[in-house]
Specification:
Helix content: 10-25%
Number of helices: 6
Number of strands: 10
Oligomer: single chain
Strand order of the largest sheet: 3-10-5-8-7
Length: about 220
């Protein structure tokens, strides 16, 4: 639930308004705005309504120390070679044991690696990237208008990793996490993204099912 709520949040028009009102400029502006805005304002319509120009994938599991789980988001063909606005949003929430007597309260931390902004054809926006790894909820947005170069079947990879923080996570212990990833564009650019991603996931599932079938 935490991951879904954060995933539907963004700074929106607040960023430009506060930059002008507070006279914030340069690389430090995002860090200062993060302290004020956090992950931004929740848009309830993005929680309860589907959209043909947006595809949302939800995953989760349990991860142990020094493990990496890789998720592959199918890239929609309708976004290929189009210099139009689009956005990728990645949100990760996890439940880590806490250590009350230490400043570093998490016994371990779970995070996803830096999104591939080159593949996504955009830049990271909203919350400053150093701040989003300090808690137990990481939420990053990559958006832009640069043309995306890929071939049909390519994917946008998201690598979830786990490492010790305040204490050593014992062997055999795992941390639960949830991951939400979405891709979207304007309706006039494409209204088939949802169907494209769904079809490619179904094809992948059928191929894996065939690979598990063995003759008797």
């Amino acid at each position: 639930m935490r991951a879904l709520l954060a995933h539907a949040s963004s700074w929106g028009a607040w960023e430009n308004s506060l930059r002008n009102d507070l006279g914030l400029h340069g690389q430090d502006a995002r860090r200062q705005l993060t302290a004020l805005l956090g992950y931004g304002r929740l848009d309830p319509s993005r929680l309860g309504e589907a959209a043909s120009n947006r595809a949302v994938l939800i995953a989760g599991g349990q991860i142990a120390r020094n493990e990496r789980h890789t998720y592959s988001f199918p890239l929609p063909p309708s976004l290929r070679a189009k210099a139009e606005w689009h956005r990728f949003t990645i949100t990760l929430a996890f439940m880590a044991p806490t250590v009350g007597q230490l400043t570093r309260y998490r016994s371990a931390k779970v995070y996803f690696s830096t999104p591939d902004t080159s593949l996504a054809g955009g830049d990271r926006t909203d919350a400053e990237h150093n701040a989003v790894r300090r808690g137990s909820l990481q939420h990053e947005i990559v958006q832009g208008t640069r043309s995306m170069s890929f071939v049909d079947g390519d994917v946008f990879p998201v690598h979830v990793e786990c490492m010790d923080d305040a204490q050593r996570l014992r062997a055999g212990n795992t941390i639960r996490y949830a991951l939400v990833v979405s891709a979207e564009t304007a309706e006039q650019t494409s209204n088939t993204i949802h169907d494209e991603v769904r079809d490619r996931l179904r094809l992948r599932a059928r191929e894996r099912a065939r690979g598990r079938i063995r003759p008797q």
